[in-house]
Amino acid sequence: MRLAWIFGSSRSGSTWLLRMLADLDGIVPIDDPHLGHHLGVWRPIPLAWAIGEEDAPELTTLLDLKAGEPGYFFAERYRDSWWRPLRELIEARFQAQARELNGSLSGSATFVVKEPGSHAAPLLADLFPESKLVFLLRDGRDVVDSWLDAYREGSWAMRGGAFPVAPAGRVALIRWLSAVWAFRSRAVREAFQAREPADRAMVRYERLRTHTEECLEEICETLELPTDRLVEIAAQHRFEQLPSDARGPGSETRIATPGSWRENLSAKEQAAMHEVLGEALVEFGYESPSRRLAVGMR
Q1: Which of 11, 159, 181, 250 could form a Cys-Cys staple with 146, CB 3.0–4.6 A?
Q2: Count of beta carbons in the 10 Å neighbourhood of residue 280
């Protein structure tokens, strides 16, 4: 199976990227299979950010916490018994969807799996060592801002289990979402660094917006996909091409302007977000206000 993952974080433009790649011949798009949410259940649960101590708890997953316990289904000591069956299950599931989409499968078809739950990226990448990896990275503050908008009455995310957050709960939700972005980004970096350079590509959302064709070409070269229609595909899928009623607040395709968090989050909310995100932002090349202030004081 020719397989490529789009790892990073939800609300990072991964749907846009998948739709562009899906326009190429021989692509089987797999959208949000949520594998990571089954294989990497979050611990502690999000409620901890609202009722815990002032300091944010350390985020991890059940997979990490329980790996050494023999009773845990995915215990490391029994890896030989579940590793191959898990891989075969995932392959069979993707192939079933491909047959429904395309009728028959070509051996040269490439399965592009978008955001399967990137906190499990190291496991999924190890499970398919011959797969390609695309790391789509977006400023965590814009990711948090976008998700916060999804937790509003009538938003696109309600049908998927989101809820309208009360004003009093916004800061706790921001802290949780910030921790998730940092954890996922670090998990994807771990999987990315373990891949050979020829089998991986890293693209920042901010550059994908301004240099779409160039970024697509880099991705296609890594995934060994044709590049002859990229200008046409990029033009067809530009944010500005969407009808006005298909974008904006509460919409799945909301806004494509980097840095919008500055206008959408209050000073208190921004402070809470930077408290959790500060170190991770710097790690991934995004300058945080606190760091800029520190530099200015030297």
Answers
A1: 11
A2: 19
Q: How far apart are the first and last CA of the chain?
A: 54
Q: Yes or no: say if 236 and 23 are a contact pair by the CB < 8 Å rule.
A: yes
Task: Please tell me the pTM assigned to this model.
Answer: 0.91
In the chain the domains, ranked by start, together with CATH numbers, are 2-140+179-248 (3.40.50.300)
Chain-centre distance of CA 178, in angstroms? Answer: 13
Q: How many CB atoms lie within 10 A of CB 38?
A: 12
Residue 164 burial by Cβ neighbours in a 10 Å radius (0-12, 13-18, 19+): exposed
The first and second tokens of residue 1, run together, are 């199976």
Please determine, for residue 298, whether its predicted confidence score (pLDDT) is greater than 50.
no
Helix, strand and coil in the chain, % to nearest 5: 55, 10, 35
Residue 297: per-residue pLDDT: 28
Q: How far apart are CA 113 and CA 122, in angstroms?
A: 15
